């Protein structure tokens, strides 16, 4: 890789935050995840996870579905096709930056 190939600005800022990166990484490995499962896997608080989910949802990277199981609310998250494409591009950019 030459110096002209190195462009850290190519990394997607929406994904690059630590918690958003964790959300995207986990969701890329499962078909869908419950909010509580994702909270446990990322060790995030309810509020922090909600804020970062919203940012990913606004970017069109994740789909958030709210349903009820009995009388209990259930929030399920999954990657959208746009999100999967952005995730793959993010990983490709990381590989390019690290020369891997």
Layout of SSEs?
Layout: H1 13-16, H2 18-29, E1 33-34, H3 35-42, H4 46-58, E2 62-69, E3 72-79, H5 81-98
Antiparallel strand pairs: 1-3, 2-3
Q: What does this entry look like structurally?
A:
The chain is an alpha+beta fold and 100 residues long. The protein has a single domain, classed as Orthogonal Bundle (Arc Repressor Mutant, subunit A), CATH 1.10.10.10. The chain is 55% helix and 18% strand. The protein has five helices and three strands, in the order H-H-E-H-H-E-E-H. The chain has helices at residues 13-16, 18-29, 35-42, 46-58, 81-98, and strands at 33-34, 62-69, 72-79. It has a three-stranded antiparallel sheet with strand order 1-3-2. Strand 2 (62-69) and strand 3 form a beta hairpin. The mean pLDDT is 92.
Q: State the end-to-end CA separation.
A: 10 Å
Please describe the biggest sheet, giving its number of strands, its sense, and whether it closes into a barrel: 3 strands, antiparallel
* CATH topology annotation: Arc Repressor Mutant, subunit A
The CATH class is: Mainly Alpha
How many separate structural domains? 1
The CATH fourth-level homologous superfamily? Winged helix-like DNA-binding domain superfamily/Winged helix DNA-binding domain
Strand order of the largest sheet: 1-3-2
The number of distinct β-strands equals 3
Which CATH architecture? Orthogonal Bundle
Helicity, in percent?
55-70%
Beta-strand fraction estimate: 15-25%
Instruction: Give the ordered list of helices and strands.
Output: HHEHHEEH
């Amino acid at each position: 890789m030459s110096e002209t190939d190195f462009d850290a600005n190519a990394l997607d800022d929406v994904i690059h935050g630590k918690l958003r990166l964790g959300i995207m990484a986990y969701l890329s490995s499962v078909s869908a995840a419950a909010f509580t499962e994702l909270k446990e896997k990322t060790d995030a608080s309810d509020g922090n996870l909600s804020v970062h989910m919203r940012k990913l949802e606004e970017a069109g990277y994740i789909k958030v579905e709210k349903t009820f199981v009995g009388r209990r609310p259930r929030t399920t998250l999954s990657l959208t096709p746009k999100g999967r494409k952005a995730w793959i591009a993010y990983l490709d950019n990381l590989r390019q930056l690290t020369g891997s």
